[in-house]
C-alpha cells in the first residue's frame, strides 16, 4: 500500500501522520508512510488544503485531521481496492 501525508510540517500534518501510523499498527498492516512537504508537489498531487492523505494514488482526505478510527476506515477501503 502506498500512503502519503501531504503538508508543510504543521502541527496538523504531524498529527495526521501520527494517526496514520497508529491506524496501521492497530490494523497490523504494513505500509511505508511518505511525506510530501513541497508546496508544488502537494498541489500536483491534487491537495488544495493541508493536511492531505493519499492512499494508493487517490486523495481521500484534505484539510482535516480525522480520528484514528476514520483513518482505519480509509485504509481498509484502500486495501479492498488492492485485491
The CATH topology label is: Glutaredoxin
The description of the largest β-sheet is:
4 strands, mixed
Structural class: alpha+beta
Terminal CA distance reads 11 Å
How many discrete domains?
Answer: 1
Give the strand line-up of the largest sheet: 2-1-3-4
Can you tell me the residue ranges where pLDDT is under 50 for at least 5 consecutive residues? none
Q: What is the CATH superfamily?
A: Glutaredoxin
Radius of gyration: 12 Å
Q: Number of helix segments?
A: 3
Report the average pLDDT across residues: 95
What's the order of the H and E elements? EHEHEEH
Q: What's the helical proportion of residues?
A: 40-55%
Strand content: 15-25%
Describe this structure in words.
- With 83 residues, this protein is α+β, with helices and mostly antiparallel strands.
- It has one domain (2-82): 3-Layer(aba) Sandwich (Glutaredoxin).
- It is 46% helix and 23% strand.
- The protein has 3 helices and 4 strands, in the order βαβαββα.
- The protein has helices spanning 11-27, 39-44, 68-82, and strands at residues 2-6, 32-36, 52-55, 58-62.
- The chain has a 4-stranded mixed sheet with strand order 2-1-3-4.
- α1 (11-27) packs across α3 (68-82).
- The model has no long low-confidence stretch (mean pLDDT 95).
Amino acid at each position: 500500500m502506498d500512503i502519503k501525508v501531504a503538508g508543510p510540517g504543521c502541527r496538523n500534518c504531524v498529527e495526521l501522520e501520527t494517526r496514520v501510523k497508529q491506524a496501521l499498527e492497530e490494523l497490523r498492516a504494513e505500509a511505508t508512510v511518505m511525506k510530501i512537504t513541497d508546496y508544488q508537489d502537494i498541489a500536483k498531487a491534487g491537495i488544495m488544503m493541508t493536511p492531505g492523505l493519499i492512499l494508493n494514488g487517490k486523495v481521500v482526505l484534505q484539510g482535516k485531521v480525522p480520528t484514528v478510527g476514520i483513518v482505519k476506515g480509509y485504509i481498509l477501503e484502500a486495501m479492498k481496492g488492492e485485491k
